[in-house]
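[09:14] KT: can someone run the structure on this one? pasting the chain below
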Amino acid sequence: MKKSLLFSLLTMSVYFSQAQNITGELTNSDPTFNRPVEGTPPTALSTDGTNVHYDVVPITITTTGLFSFVCNGSVNFDSFGFLYSPAGFDPLNPLSNVLVGNDDISGSNVNFGFTYNFTSPGVYYLVITTFKNPSIGSYEIARTEGGVLPVRLISFTAEKANGGKNLLKWTSAGESNIEKYQVQHSSNGSTFTDIAGAAIDGRNLPTTSYYNYTDNAPFEKLNFYRLKIIEKDNVIKYSIVAVVNNNKQSSARISVFPNPAVNYLNIQTKAGQKGRADVSISSASGQIVYKKEYTVANESILYIDLQKMTPGNYFVRLKSPDGEITNLPFVKH
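[09:31] RB: done, structure tokens below
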């Protein structure tokens, strides 16, 4: 049964450590709700996150300013986090009073993270939930105070354009202290170099920003791209990798490569596909170890970081924008 915010918070297995960390575990005995989508703030309910379990943690803010919350969950726990104002969290009306929601922090596939600028003291509410059922597990959330608001990449994509060019697009939210985005290029997915003339100044806006860059001279076959995000204090971070196959032959089927894989896996989508694709990876025992939504364009290549996966046999499942489901095996060395 769903409960209001006034359920017994004292019974929850969550606490703050002296290092300002929050630890807990999401279990099948926790209450459920239909979660919102991510956003600042979220504006709609998710079609995937229905009847998902949740924990609620009161967050006492005594001074104004920036606070960051970054989740580190157990292996099979695909966490999702929301922050609610002092007006409270109502699981029956989860779009009320919500300030921010995040699925995957930049560079992560399963852990949420966000920074929020608190303009007034009070008791706020952090809701820890999951992307979709049946994902549950333990979590540790690091809470840090101060600093500048980092960039959050909502998306980074690459696709073929007319005239043998490649079009890169990325969307960010809540920029601050960003000096520039440097587009980097690789032919093998491991050695990246800066593209000359492809340094784009950050706008440092609190709202959503949209960027694009056209690569006029891509490699003939595989093109790997990433963003080197340079902050004004010279801190450097990197985006996820986007891949384009500029082979002139169109792909009539879905494939994965390299296979066996070591550090990363690419999924080649079919020609003519455009829209949302759902990807999951399962171990040989059937345990889901990776899950993410992608936006695909014509003949997209989806890049998956495998560095945290243990060696073994896996299956990748792709639900294409047209609803077709493909299951392909691969080996991780």
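[09:33] KT: thanks! The radius of gyration is 21 Å.
[09:34] RB: yep, looked fine to me
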